[in-house]
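Hi X.,

You mentioned you wanted examples for the new student's onboarding notes, showing what a folding record looks like when two proteins sit in one file. Here is a clean example. The first protein comes first, with its sequence line followed by its structure tokens.
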Amino acid sequence: NFWLRTSRLAAFFADKIDACTVSGVEMAATADPLKAVYPNPAADRVWVYFQSRLPHVEIDLADLWGRTLGRTQADHADSAVLDLVGVPNGIYVLRIRIEGKVYVRRLVVGM
């Protein structure tokens, strides 16, 4: 018996193909602390919900060029709200800083 292995549209035969055995599957140790960004698309405001109550969170709203258009923060909360009044319709990025890590979510405003 021979196995066929291809590379760059060429073929050759190999007597043996190495394989590995999977011994288990587990979730990554770092779970996402964000539960939801709602509503999306948004109109006047957007809520960011967390998996648990967090000591300090900073949220920036940025356009696709990286310019910060809005900012809010929450202390000892399981959610935060960002006011979108005056923000033009379009696609934006939420940069959410939690305990030294930055999480990014896409946000659509008014479409």
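Then the second protein repeats the pattern, sequence line and then tokens:
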Amino acid sequence: MDEQTEAITEYSETLVGGLIEKTTVLDKTLVVEFKTGLQIEVEV
């Protein structure tokens, strides 16, 4: 990511695998936990 200079416009398995620890699917929410410990919730 430190070398990333442009916006990410396509899915990258390598990038996702390097950043995301796990994704939890709840009833109407996705919880994404990054390897840094940061969590975000996205309502779907």
